[in-house]
Amino acid sequence: MTALDWPLLLIVAVAAYLVGSLSTAVITARLLGLPDPRSAGSGNPGATNVLRLGGKKAAIVTLVGDLLKGLLPVLVAYVAVDAPMQLVAMGTAGLFAFLGHLFPVFFGFKGGKGVATAAGAILGLAPLIGLIAIVGWASTAAATRYSSLSALFAAVVAATLATFLSPPPIALAISVMALLLIIRHHGNIRRLARGEEPRIGAKSEQADDE
């Protein structure tokens, strides 16, 4: 990587981070007159909490928005950056869009768990791996009705497949996202171990979901 490549990657990283910082859950809640998901329900600004607060339509809008803000920066990097920097730029875009969701500069750095944004980024970085991870999430959610367990399973699947099947820049970006996603679910992991994790659709105010 030459000295001229670093400014390009910085631009990609900053742009992707700013896109990721657009909290779809908070914006959707404001537009629909719902409670702020950062302070109501589980306090987590993500699709699962919006489902609890505003129903399926609001949750779908949030989910699609979070997916797109992970996917679009990767696609823009793919189109805008040529080889040999293309894969590095794509990985950078996906990772920083994800970081923007976790720590959004526009919303006090209080973001969600990043499941949907990571899914969108992975779909752009490695479409087949992204589809397999989504199927794994959906299958686990249908079988257990635990959103957190489904996300953890999908993260492990994505990172494992990327390690063996993807070029190093893509594998690294997906693996870092998976690791951060698992770390963000530390509370869920403890509740799963105790048998106290609320299932999808639960109205519990103590839930801490996506």
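^ that was protein a. below is b, sequence first then the tokens
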Amino acid sequence: MNNEPLGYTVGIVGASGYAGGELLRLLLAHPGVTITQITSERNVGKFAYYVHPHLRGRTSLRFISRDVLQPCDILFLALPHGEAQAHFDTYVSLAGRIIDLSADFRLRDAAHYAAVYGHDHAAPDWLGRFVYGLPELYRESLRGASYASGVGCNATAVTLALWAVVKGGLLRPDQSIFADIKVGSSEGGNSPTEASHHPARSGVVRPFALVGHRHEAEVRQNLAPCGSFDVRMAVTSVEMVRGIAAAVYATLPTGLTDRDLWSAYRAVWQNEPFVRVVHDKSGLHRHPEPRLLGGTNYADVGWEYDPATGRAALVCAIDNLGKGAAGSAVQCMNLMSGFEETTALDFGGIYP
């Protein structure tokens, strides 16, 4: 029996978290890679399914310590914020391609990073070498790239909600834009420390972050080529486990028709494999709904608009662990490594 790895060898550092587990699930179904090592400092020696019970029977991998990682072709870093940059010299010596799911390499400028996160970056020379991992905006830069950052899940939803009207020239950059974001409990992580501070864990709906959300900086960076948009977020945890529903409130020109908006959305999204426009006049599911997207890499976008005032609610729903984390990371890997972009990402969700 041939036990040699097929295709690229892959390691996942921090594979016991929710995002790491989602990566493991997706990559186990990828025909072009073989997962050779997964790490978890708290679970060394335990089978992956000890932490991720839905993977029982799908893999016999055991967690190892990151101190014994071996070289591989592609390394995913699914670590808490700050840990990837602190040990990046080690990781870059182990793999030619690295995809970091944390916030460590999302912002391109060291001074900007320090202003947003309140401390200096531990590996500032690497910031400019990472491509932001949202293929819908950075696809060509990701093709053949060696390093990709993760995406902020809330930043992803807000960016995709706004992108059609920004690219269509329908949004003035001098106005204030407010994003009301509802999130599930998995956004708080699965460690005891993270869980105890996440409001949905207590069964009470309450604000998670009222002002100054760090993902605002990512959205502004994404939109910067089109203008200096002032985007503000409020994030509220609600009674769901997976999912994000973002409603972004802005003012568009008055007198637009549904046809005008459909034209703007189709111009941007009609050829995108993972973005779907959801804007129906009847039926139960007229607008994007996160519960329909669990386990998928899809983003559903839509809108409500008042032609008399120009007021609009621009809507996006995603799975925070899918399109907002592991799904986008695998999509990036596909582009970086020459695979078909949709490989291992074609799961369409479950209904009802």
